[in-house]
């Protein structure tokens, strides 16, 4: 049942305010400015002894993990990174007892992720799951974890589950942070930011008509570049994947800082760039990248908190706390991919060559 929407993807994009509300519900503890995550099976002493966090997933779940690693590093000050689950498994990684491993999966059935979890458990590691489908193989195999409560996702490409997974990581980062060195004041600031998310997503969804017009303008492109810096880079990666998957337009994502080390050679009027430009400590650096592109006559669509002079178009999104901005900046780009694919007449819910759940290697 598409509930009045033309596609499941559109329905699922539209459901995000409610979905985010669900992942937050019942978990926030205002008294101690923290969150309760009962299923982690990790007491405070164990949480304090974690020396490193390694996040594993595939595709969109890997991208959510990249943002999650950034959230954990900034809030809990635990070194954290994300890696594609299949790469991890085949490079014979050093499995360290002080590292907490986290497997991320919408379906909870992705073979590459499940096999990595099984290999880790065989070596005695502690593995948590950040999973959407309740009772799925990865959820059962993990030592504990959290459900992301996005609800059923039918469209082959992931949207609301991506957003909810990132919010789940923000909760985990806050939880770990408050056990370690995150202050009550910062905890409170993040909680207030989290509570603003559903309303702000609602606001972004209202700009759909404008994004649809922009999509028509970019639908003819042969290829597109997506750039972002630090927190914005995984947003660029995910937006580029979404565009590729459903429109079949070739797209690349680069850290904005890497442009001059190679990809700047591609910039010309026929190759538009989507730039993630949050109003944070890197704003001036990001603006410099826009100037470099403009100097090569590249077209620019910015996703920003204020209109960018150097950009041909800006999608203005509401500002949240710096840490949580990536969650909101991804949403207009889901709509951009959607309307680009729609303008090109693609089968959005079932893109060619892809399956919802990849249970084979
Ligand atoms: C992207 C997409 C895929 C999945 C990936 C992992 O839109 O749908 O990249 O994210 O196959 O799937 P899960 O999260 O079910 O493990």
TrEMBL record:
- Main localisation: cytoplasm
**What GO MF terms are annotated?**
carbohydrate derivative binding; glutamine-fructose-6-phosphate transaminase (isomerizing) activity
GO cellular component entries: cytosol
Catalytic activity as recorded in UniProt: D-fructose 6-phosphate + L-glutamine = D-glucosamine 6-phosphate + L-glutamate
Q: Which residues of the full protein are shown?
A: 245 to 605 of 605
The active site consists of: 356
Q: Where in the cell is it found?
A: Cytoplasm
The identity of this protein, by name, is Glutamine--fructose-6-phosphate aminotransferase [isomerizing]
Where does the record place a coiled coil? none
Q: Which UniProt keywords apply?
A: Aminotransferase, Cytoplasm, Glutamine amidotransferase, Repeat, Transferase
- Is Transmembrane one of the keywords? no
* Cytoplasm is among the record's keywords: yes
SIS domain location, by residue? 42-182, 214-351
Tree of life domain: Bacteria
| Encoding gene (name) | glmS
EC numbers: 2.6.1.16
Q: Which organism is it from?
A: Streptomyces showdoensis
């Amino acid at each position: 049942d598409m509930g009045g929407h033309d596609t499941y993807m559109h329905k699922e994009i539209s459901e995000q305010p409610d979905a985010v509300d669900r992942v937050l519900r019942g978990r926030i503890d205002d008294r101690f400015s923290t969150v309760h995550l009962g299923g982690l099976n990790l007491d405070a002493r164990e949480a304090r002894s974690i020396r490193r966090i390694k996040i594993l997933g595939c595709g969109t779940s890997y991208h959510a993990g990249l943002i999650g690693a950034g959230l954990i590093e900034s809030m809990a000050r635990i070194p954290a990174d994300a890696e594609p689950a299949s790469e991890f498994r085949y490079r014979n990684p050093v499995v360290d007892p002080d590292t907490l491993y986290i497997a991320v999966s919408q379906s909870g059935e992705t073979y590459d992720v499940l096999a990595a979890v099984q290999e880790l458990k065989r070596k005695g590691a502690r593995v948590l799951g950040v999973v959407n489908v309740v009772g799925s193989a990865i959820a059962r195999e993990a030592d504990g974890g959290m459900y992301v409560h996005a609800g059923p996702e039918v469209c082959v490409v992931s949207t609301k589950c991506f957003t909810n997974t990132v919010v789940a990581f923000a909760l985990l980062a806050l939880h770990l942070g408050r056990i370690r060195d995150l202050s009550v004041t910062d905890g409170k600031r993040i909680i207030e930011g989290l509570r603003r998310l559903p309303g702000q997503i609602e606001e972004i969804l209202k700009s759909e008509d404008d994004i649809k017009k922009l999509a028509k303008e970019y639908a003819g492109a042969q290829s597109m570049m997506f750039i972002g810096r630090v927190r914005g880079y995984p947003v660029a990666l995910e937006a580029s994947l979404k565009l590729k998957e459903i429109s079949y337009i070739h797209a690349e994502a680069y850290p904005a800082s890497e442009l001059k080390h190679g990809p700047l050679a591609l910039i010309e009027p026929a190759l538009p760039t989507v730039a993630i430009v949050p109003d944070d400590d890197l704003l001036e650096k990001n603006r410099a990248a826009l100037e470099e592109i403009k100097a090569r006559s590249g077209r620019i669509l910015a996703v920003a908190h204020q209109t960018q002079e150097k950009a041909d178009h800006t999608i203005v999104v509401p500002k949240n706390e710096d840490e949580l901005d990536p969650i909101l900046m991804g949403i207009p780009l889901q709509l951009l991919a959607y309307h680009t694919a729609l303008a090109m007449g693609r089968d959005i819910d079932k893109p060619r060559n892809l399956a919802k759940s990849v249970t084979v290697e």
